[in-house]
Design brief:
This protein is 37% helix and 14% strand. It has 11 helices and 13 strands. The protein has helices at residues 7-11, 40-49, 63-72, 85-98, 113-121, 164-172, 227-237, 247-258, 260-283, 305-314, 338-352; strands spanning 27-28, 80-83, 104-107, 125-128, 148-152, 179-182, 203-208, 221-225, 287-288, 295-299, 317-318, 320-321, 331-334. It has a 7-stranded mixed sheet with strand order 2-8-7-6-5-3-4, with helices on both faces. A 4-stranded antiparallel sheet has the order 9-10-13-12. Helix 3 (63-72) runs parallel beside helix 8 (247-258) and helix 4 (85-98) packs across helix 5 (113-121). The radius of gyration is 20 Å and the shape is globular. The chain starts with 6 loop residues before the first helix and ends with a helix. It binds pyridoxal-5'-phosphate (PLP). Pyridoxal-5'-phosphate binds at residues 85-87, 111, 152, 156, 182, 184, 208, 210, 216, 221.
């Protein structure tokens, strides 16, 4: 607290990112980073862009990157917005599209940044409880009383996904408000709503290069939707920071989109490791929610999650635990390499013995 803070700042309850430990050799399964590095073509493109041209401002419209994304998704560049990580893209969407008279709806268990943006931008909101199996029920979003809707698909931190027809029911059932689908994890087995964009002008799909393209450190996120929605995001962006993506991020981002083969190979490797992790945890008695993400959400009937997390940490493995009452007995475990997941399962076996 300081007397120099604005009233708004003193009321904020900021997001707390997962720990980025300074200790070496920890098995870091707490922030859903990809276990394999980015495509070598991304590194080469960034190296090539690292020259005297850095004295110049980057393209404020990130046109080459938007074109690369548009081409891959069979869209026009006018249907694509890019930002400094999808967190920034989401923040602009909250301010430009989701701040309305009626409340914004999102699940009670979801990405914990959503209520933080509501605090920052003073957005009225209401949470909708997940069902007993921690799944989103599309019908709960069809009462016609929303000012806007946002949820991740697959949801975080549960990893549960909704089929495309269920997402479409929510989008079609709310034609007068914007529905944002946060697809941070969609490339690990989910169904993307990008296929619906040409039919629904109220749909905004947000994705990131942080997870499935192994570029959390580069900060590239994007949104796809009707040009009117994109223009709204642009107005906020150009009232905030003309150059959210630097030259290196734009060059690396294009290379990441273009290396489709590497993307396919590494995302499938993660999904395969996930199957083994689910099996290993299941054999130890964990209840593991069905995951379409690069993490699993697991609880153990006999041992409180918080204690397991602490014991794992003593053994050099870090996972994420959330204090929210409905999920306080769950651990969110990022899918690492086969070896890392094997070490995690072995450490759990020791702890539970
Ligand atoms: C990781 C994540 C993001 C943000 O990713 P960026 O690194 O900011 O692109 C957004 N939404 C969800 C649900 C996430 O898990």
């Amino acid at each position: 607290m300081s007397r120099f803070w604005s009233h708004l700042v003193s009321t904020l309850d900021p997001y707390v990112p997962g720990e980025q430990p300074r200790i070496q050799n920890l098995i870091k399964l707490n922030t859903n980073e990809h276990p394999y590095g980015p495509s070598p073509k991304v590194i080469a493109a960034i190296a090539q862009a690292s020259d005297a041209s850095l004295r110049l401002y980057p393209d404020p419209t990130s046109l080459a990157l938007r074109q690369a994304i548009a081409q891959r998704e069979s869209l026009d560049a006018e249907q694509v917005f890019v930002g400094n990580g999808s967190d920034e893209v989401l923040a602009h969407a909250f301010q430009a599209l989701l701040k309305q008279e009626r409340p914004l709806l999102f699940p009670d268990i979801t990405y914990s940044f959503y209520p933080v943006y509501c605090g920052l931008y003073q957005i009225a909101h209401r949470t909708i409880a997940l069902d007993a199996a921690l799944a989103i029920r599309p019908e709960d979003y069809l009462h016609g009383d929303a000012g806007g809707i946002i949820f991740p698909n697959p949801n975080a931190p549960t990893g549960r996904g909704l089929a495309l027809d269920a997402v479409e029911r929510v989008v079609a059932g709310n034609p007068d408000v914007v529905v944002v689908i946060d697809e941070a994890y969609v490339d690990f087995g989910g169904q993307s709503a990008t296929l619906l964009i040409d039919r629904y002008p109220n749909l905004l799909v947000v994705q990131t290069m942080s997870k499935s393209r192994s570029l959390a450190g580069l900060r590239v996120g994007f949104a796809m939707g009707h040009p009117d929605l994109i223009q709204g995001l642009d107005r906020v962006k150009n009232s905030f920071n003309s150059y959210p993506l630097d030259r290196l991020a734009q060059a690396g981002g294009v290379a990441a989109i273009e290396d489709e083969a590497y993307f396919q190979q590494t995302r499938h490797a993660v999904m395969q490791t996930r199957d083994g992790l689910v099996e290993g945890l299941g054999a130890l008695g964990f209840d593991v929610l069905p995951s379409l993400a690069n993490f699993v959400f697991a609880s153990h009937p006999r041992r409180p999650a918080e204690g397991i997390a602490a014991a794992l940490r003593e053994r050099g493995v870090i996972v994420r635990h959330f204090r929210h009452p409905r999920i306080s007995n769950y651990l969110r475990i990022t899918v690492g390499t086969d070896q890392q997941c094997g070490q995690l399962v072995a450490a759990c076996a020791e702890i539970l013995a």
